[in-house]
Amino acid sequence: MEDGKGPHGSVGRIIKYDRVTSLQQQALEQALTVLDNAYNPYSGFSVGATLISADGRLITGTNFENAAYGSTICAERAAVLQANSMGVRHFTGIAIIARGKSRKATTKVTAPCGSCRQVLWELADLWDGTLDVILSTTEKDMIILTSIREIFPLPFGPSQMLEKNDILQYRKTNQPLI
Ligand SMILES: [Zn+2]
């Protein structure tokens, strides 16, 4: 498929695998790898997400379901929490791949839910609001490149709640000893 408008109208654009950055390619590969670690006994739906940190680290998450359905957490937010525990709050992108219970190759991409868009914006807005969102099928034969700004317009976030100095403070983290 040629690069161009995606199947979702004006949101995002189709981009070939060899046209995304090598770090974004690695992020997609890791998202695909962690799909098998999704904890999904109730839906069978698997989601793998990989955050790309501003310093080039890749941090993954999977969906993690719960018998009390409302306690389920999505892969994107699981990755954010994992990154935060590592002292990482600055990202350039997130790669997301999902697959249904049948485990068949997918023909459509899966976009983050509204709650995950809000959480991704929380961190993007601490910086300049830039965060690529790379959505792919399992075979990487359909990739949609978009951004948090595009899929989460007119957002509410830290810049409404915090003074500039507070934002600067919360950009910083304590890196754990390894
Ligand atoms: Zn979500």
| Number of H/I helices | 6
**Biggest beta sheet summary:** 7 strands, mixed
CATH topology: Cytidine Deaminase, domain 2
Going by helix content, strand content and strand pairing, the class is: alpha+beta
**Portion of residues within helices:** 25-40%
The overall strand count is 7
Bound molecules: zinc ion
CATH architecture classification name: 3-Layer(aba) Sandwich
Rg for CA atoms: 16 Å
**Residue runs with pLDDT of under 50 for 5 or more positions:** none
**Integer count of domains:** 1
Characterize this entry briefly:
The protein is an alpha+beta fold and 178 residues long. Helices cover 29% and strands 20% of the residues.
Can you walk through the features of this model?
This protein has 178 residues and is of the alpha+beta class. It is 29% helix and 20% strand. The chain has one domain (4-171): 3-Layer(aba) Sandwich (Cytidine Deaminase, domain 2), CATH 3.40.140.10. A seven-stranded mixed β-sheet has the order 1-2-7-6-5-3-4. Strand 5 (91-99), helix 3 (114-124) and strand 6 (132-136) form a beta-alpha-beta unit. The longest helix is centred in the first third of the chain and has 13 residues, at 22-34. The structure holds zinc ion (ZN). The site of zinc ion has 6 residues, from helix 3.
